[in-house]
Amino acid sequence: MASEDDADFRVKLTDAYLKIRKVKINPSISVAHEIALKKGPAIYPIRRVECKSFIVPAGNPSLRKDNLFNGLVPKTVVFGMVESDAFNGALKKNPYNFQHFSVSSIGITVNGEEIPFKPLQLSYGAAPKYIEAFTTLFSGTGKMYHNTGNDISREEFPEGYAVYAFDLTPDMCGASPHFNAVQKGNLAIDIQFSAAPANAVSLVCYGEFENTVHIDSERNVVYDYSG
Question: Which pTM does this prediction carry?
Fold first, then answer.
């Protein structure tokens, strides 16, 4: 953030380098790898991330977005809302100020089925009711029932930390090290506001997917992000 909207800032790179770890492999191991690659490619599981943003026009009392990730369902989806001008680079505003914008309901469906539970019914007014939304930061990120936190308190949540996380895996173990099969379907988000935003708002969505990268004996790298 800066005190002037028209400030003319520049970033100058004075030095750039890449650190790479090099190892010496036992020749017998290298031969074993080559033999294995002749029989089939090496397969490496990866966690792929995709981010998207959508505009909530000023005065709109609701927002619904269908097919959020083009027919794929992430194992974890996290989203929040910021003022659009802040998201687009207004120097006087904080692009990480995830305000609640008087959200009254948040629902997620896959092929019309509500998951992982019924829509959240929220209130950020005089009679606050947002603890269930706050706990998604734990249930949606694998921190529930563990002696760990995320440095966001219940009191801080509506003050710029209103981020919602959902584990969409069948076994609710999206944060576990085991590989989750890629799900396909129409992932939709439905958000209702108790008071329509006075200014345009950006919905920022983060999706995490399980994918694989294949490397054959000719060192060709093949990946398929379609599931």
Answer: 0.86
